[in-house]
Design brief:
Gyrase A, domain 2, 2 domains, five-stranded antiparallel sheet
Length: 245
Amino acid sequence: MTLRKILRLSGKDTRDFLQGLITNDIAKLDHGLVYAAILTPQGKYLADFFLQADGDDVLLDADITQADALLQRLSMYKLRADVTITPTDLHVHRGLGERPADALDDPRTPALGWRALRETPQTDDTTDWDAIRVENLVPAAGRELTPDSFILEMGFERLNGVDFRKGCYVGQEVTARMKHKTELRKGLARVALEGLAEPGAEILSSGKPAGTLHTRSGNTALAYLRFDRAGGDLVAADASLTRID
């Protein structure tokens, strides 16, 4: 199970502070969970997370491997803003089916069910979340999402993780240019595999680099591909690959 860390942001400037940093519109907090990322000024991925309103506060649900660096960066940006950021002892619970009263829908896709923040750890989760991610083209922090990632190549528009009408945020100019002025030549795709290949294996097309294999579930996997080289026969380690979507 992926470990998470929950940060609490409080203070009268919290929402305005986040609005100038994140890829999504903070106003969506009034309607449920918000999925967003924070980027470098060059538009590259730093971290992704969920935001949830808790009264006047905002709870930020991040991958535990990114939480400390994210806390440090947010603290660097806040300057004199009335914002206090503190770690909490809350735990993420996830599930499929009927949503409990204290839970909210995962905004990325209905296939990922619901999320709830609770005071005790979850001990009954047997869901194969990687299989669901692979089936629905959903990247994960530290796996498909790396410091070299551009969020549009990783499907953030489809996953409701970016808003093009909200105004400026760090990295917004590069992201908007990719949306409106260029055609994506690389990106996340799903592939079928025959044979052995581990995540991280280089994908070749006619001997030329074509991408990288990522999360595998059975005979399908997520892959970062060069689209101009993804239409033919692909190989990774001892496996043959075919792009599905």
